Amino acid sequence: MPVSSRHVLLWAMLALALWTAGAFLLPLVFGVILAIALWPLNQRWAGPGDGLRRRVFVPLGITLATGLAFILPLTVALIEVAAQGQALLDWLSRAQTIGVPAPDWLPGLPLVGHRAALWWQLHLQQPDALMNGMTESALGTAAEWALATGSGILSRSLLLLVGLMALFFILRDGEKLGAQARSLAQHQLGPFGERFSDELVMAVRGTVIGTIVVAIAEGALIGGAYAIAGVPHPVFLGFLTAAFAMLPFGAWAVFSVVSVYLAITGQPFSAALLFAYGAAVMVIGDNFVTPYLVGAKLHLPLLFAFIGVFGGLGSFGLVGIFVGPVIMAGLLIVIRELWPSDSEATV
User: Fold this and answer.
1) Among 299, 292, 333, residue whose Cα is nearest residue 198
2) What is the pTM of this model?
3) CA distance linking residue 236 with residue 223, whole number of Å
4) What is the domain count for the chain?
5) 193 with 341, same domain?
6) Confidence of residue 280 (pLDDT cuts 50, 70, 90)
7) Residue 72 belongs to domain spanning
8) CA 214/CA 231 separation, integer angstroms
9) For residue 183, is it within any domain?
């Protein structure tokens, strides 16, 4: 069979395989990214040889631990949301019976305080001011949200399972798969192919470390400040801060809202301290810790990181938080290869 015919057959089968696996491509890519990031840990724990420890026990243990790391925060968040949903329904029931008293600080607002207090007294403070229709609407909305959330959790649980399966098999057969990938890259791209694959692997590890590890640390540190400041539900807010810390400026939004809550509830000094502490944690984490862990050469510029994260979110969903920056890192590697800076050209 001529070479051109083999290439046509290869690309045709590849296109057919991608079309067949289209619904599972993102979790598969996510599994590959996690496997590349966790590969050094797998190698360290597996040790030499090719026994059950290396082929089964260590990859399976890492896979189960990774799954737990995703499931545990989600479980805590769902429990907290359910509890808050019940608290909201209880509040609506009380408000329907006795009304909602105006906060003490409302009349003191400049310019609009008096009118705001009168409006509150007329529409919210009187019993039965909140109409039954509003309560029924809230109950209906809550039921629809619960149904949609349950359906989304089931579908994403399947995708997570596929990603974890890919993680296990790649950790188990990583050496063989890595050698094949390097050989293919070198065959298709020449000497640059091997360098590209090595730098892309480093970029993937740096992206995961810089995204997950730093976000968890920032969420834990700021979550401890929530507890010290006496903010309700500090554990849930700590998880929320860690989750939003994976987005550019995300954690800033969370602890800023919490600081505003403290100020509104009569704790302006605690609010100022919390905001200053959160800002210090974020500045140190984003400008010193992340570049140290990732490496200055692989650290994405802010614009690239911003486009990678939010563009990835828009294109690929939550998995895009990791896929988008990896794509931007790959683009940077190609740009540096085609147009090296003076310092790189002299190396």
Assistant:
1) 333
2) 0.68
3) 8
4) 2
5) yes
6) very high
7) 25-172
8) 23
9) no
